[in-house]
Amino acid sequence: MDKIYNILKKTFGYEEFREHQKEIIKTVLNKKNVIAIMPTGSGKSLCYQIPALIFDGLTIVVSPLISLMKDQVLQLKANGIEAIFLNSTLSLEEYSYNVNSLLNKEIKLLYVAPETLIQERTINILKQIKIDLIAVDEAHCISEWGHDFRPEYRKLTDFRKQFPLATTIALTATATPQVQKDIAKNLNIPEAKTFLSSFNRKNLILEVIPKTDAFSQTIEFIQKFKNQSGLIYCFSRKQVDSVASDLQDLGYSALPYHAGLTSLEREKNQEAFIKDEVKIIVATIAFGMGINKPDVRFVLHHDLPKNIESYYQQIGRAGRDGIDSHCRLLFSYGDTAKIKYFLKEKEEKERFKSLQLLEALVNFCESEVCRRIPLLKYFGEEYKEENCGKCDICLSENIQKQDITIEAQKFLSCIKRTNESFGANYIINILRGSKDKNVLNRNHNKLSTYGIGMDLSKKQWQHLSRQLIRKGVMELGEYNILKLNNKSWEILRGRKTLFGTLFEEKSKMPVTQNIAYDSELFDILRKIRKELAEEENVPPYIIFGDKTLIDISVFYPQSKDSLMKMSGLGEHKIKKYGKLLLDVIRNYCVEKDIEDISFKKISQKKIPSSSGKRHLEVGRKFNSGISIQELCEEYKVKEQTILNHLYKYKLAGNNLLQTIEVDLPNEDIHKIEETFSQLGTERFKPVFEKFQGKYSYDILRKIYLNKKG
After folding, report:
1. Same domain, 580 and 667
2. Last residue of a domain, one of 196, 226, 245
3. Poorest-confidence range of 98-102, 180-184, 605-609, 660-664?
4. Residue 221 in contact with residue 280, Cβ under 8 Å?
5. pLDDT tens digits, residue range 492-510?
C-alpha cells in the first residue's frame, strides 16, 4: 500500500484515492479480473495506470478512439510515464520506433484500438512481450444495449485467450444492469469482481427548461460563462451550422462539429477546442467519446438527445476536474415528435427499443422531483437525498401550488370541441380569442370556448399545457396533436382537482464553483499555462488542470514543499515547472503582501481534533473546501452551531477561504456591513436591535464571516 500511495502522490500529485479506486487497484494487483463502473471524472484511468507502473510486464489499454489514445498518452508523458499508441495516424517510421520501444521493454502502457489489436502482426509483436494487464476502456461498446456498440470489441475474448496469464479490467462510465451483464458475458469474465460507483456526478448542476426561443435562450445561458469552455448539442447538422454561424456573427468563439464536415475539418475544430483556441463547440452526437477536456464548464442541449444514456454521456463531458459545471437542456415535445419520426425508418425490434429509451429521457425531463432521482434510477441506483442542492427542481423557489382545475377544464374542453385534431398553440389561440385566419376559416370563433381564456397570457397557457402533459392529464400524439385520456375526463367531469402553477417557477441556479480563490492570480497562471502549452504543442490542461491553478490561487504556495501539496502536481511536473511557478507566486505575493497558507491544505481525514477546541477543527475543515452543509451532516448539528464555530475561528485571527451564500440583496448586505463598522463585531445584539430584528443572527454571522480581514 505504501508503494501505491507513493505513486499516487509523487507521480500523479494526489493525496487521496476516490471511491473504489484503492480497492480496484488492490484487486488488479492480486491478478483478479475486474469490471469497474465509474462515472466520468471519477478517476477510472488510475485504476489501471498505477498497477501498470507496479507490474513488471506491459499493460495494454484498449481504447475506441484515436483522439482518446493521444490524450491519455500525452497526460502520462506529462507525468514522466513511458506510454505509446499504435494506430493508423503513425508514419511507418513512427510505428517501427514504437514497436522497438515495446520489444526493448521501455514502455509501461500501450494504447491501441480493438481493430488494431486483433490484427495478426500486432498479436505476433505482443507474443514476444510479457503482458500483465489488459484494460478494456469504454467497455460498454461490447454490448448491443450500449449506446456505442462496436462489433470489434466482441473479438477481444479471442485475443484474451492468447494471453491467459494477463489480468483483465473492463471500465465504463455508462452501463445499465443489462450492459454490465453483457460486458461480463462477452469478455468471458463471469467471475470478475464488479465495482459499481455511484452514477451521481455531484458537481454537475442539472437543469431542464421549456424551449421557447432556443437561440435567445442559448445566448442568455452562455453569457454566464465568459472565457470558459462549453459544448452545445443540436439534433441535426443543419442546426449545428446555423447555431455556430449565428454565434460567430455575434462575436462568440464557436466552431461546428458534425459528420458532414471532412475528417480534417473535424480534427482541426476539435484541436482548436482542446487547445483553448476556441471556447465553444456546437455539435451533433458525432462529437464523441474522444474528448477528455477536464475544464468544460457548461453543456447546453439546444435539442433533445435521443435517449437518457446519450444525455448522461454528453453532460459527462462537463466538469471532469470536479469543479461545478452547468448542464441545461431545452425541452420541447416537438423534439420528441421529431425523434419518433426518424425512428420510423428502423426495424421494428430496434424501433421499439429506441422508443423505450426515448420515453425514459422524457420521463426525466417531465419529472417534478429532484432530477437525480429518475436519472440515477435509470442506471439502477436509488438516490435517497431529499434535496441535491444542484438541480432546477431542488433550487426552485417554493412557489405555492394553486387550484388550476378550472383553467385545465377550459383547455381540455377546447381540445374536445376541436375533435382532438390540433396542437397546443392553436388551442391557445382559440382560448384567447385570436383573429388568426385559420381559426376564423374553420369557424372556431363560434365555439363556446372561443375567448374564454383571455385572462391568461399566451405564455401562461403554454406553461399550463406543459403541466397537463407532464401530469398525464392529456397526451401528445403524432405531429404534436393533443389527445384526451381517462384523466382528462375525470378533470372535465369535476371528479378530480388539479393543483399547479400559472407562472414559470424561477430557480436560483448557481453558475460557478463555490470555492473562493484569487481570480487575479488564477488569470495570471492561466495565461502562463497557455504559453507553455503553445510552446510544447499540447492542450493547456496537460500542463496544469484548473483545479491545480485554483489550489495555488487559494493557498499561495511559496516553497517546493508547499507546491507539492497542490492537487495534480507530481514530482515530474514540479521538476519541470516548479521554479517558474514559484517565481510567479512569490512575486505576486510580495506585491500583494500575502503569506503562504498552504499549511492549511489538510485533508478531511487528517485534521486533528485540536484538543477539544472544536471551532479550530471546524474552521480548518471549512478552509479545506468542506461546505457548511457537509459539516452539519458530519457533526450532526444545525447550521447555527457551525456558524458559531466559524465565528470563534475568525475571532481568533484566522481567515476563512470560502464565501458563504447570503440570500439578501446587495443593498441590504452593504447596510449591515456599514453597521458592523459603526458598532463592532464582538457582539451581534446591537446590530440585531439596530435593524429591529429584520435580519436573523445567522444572516448577521454569515455577512461578518464573509468580510475580509
Report:
1. no
2. 196
3. 605-609
4. no
5. 999 999 988 887 655 556 5
- DSSP state string for 382-398: ----S--SSBHHHHB--
Q: Looking at 154-249, list the stretches that DSSP marks H as alpha helix, in order from N- to C-terminal side.
A: 156-161, 177-186, 214-222, 237-249
307 with 413, same domain: the answer is: no
Domain total in the chain: 5
CATH of the domain at 626: 1.10.10.1390
Give the C-alpha separation, 49 to 79, whole Å.
Answer: 12
Is residue 604 over pLDDT 60?
Answer: no
Q: How far apart are CA 299 and CA 319, in angstroms?
A: 10
- How many residues comprise the chain? 709
Helix (H) or strand (E) holding 256: strand 254-257
Q: Is there a contact between 313 and 289 (Cβ–Cβ < 8 Å)?
A: yes
pLDDT tens-digit series, residues 150-202: 788 888 999 999 999 999 999 998 777 888 899 999 999 999 999 988 889 98
Q: Is the dihedral of CA 78, 81, 85, 91 positive or negative?
A: positive
Give the CA-trace dihedral at 54, 191, 137, 107, to 10 degrees: 30
Residue 652: Cβ within 10 Å count: 11
Distances 612 to 273, 606, 609, 687 between C-alpha atoms, Å? 51, 16, 6, 31
Lookup result for grid cell 522497438: 100
For 210, the domain range is 204-395
Cβ neighbours for 166, distance < 8 A, ≥ 6 positions apart: 60, 131, 132, 133, 134, 160
Of 369, 322, 397, 28, whose CA–CA distance to 195 is shortest?
28
Q: Is 683 inside a domain boundary?
A: yes
For the whole model, what pTM was predicted? 0.70
Same domain for 585 and 610?
Answer: no
40 and 134 both lie in a single domain: yes
The C-alpha cell that represents 311 in the structure block = 444525455
Residues 469, 473, 476, 482, Cα dihedral to 10°: -120
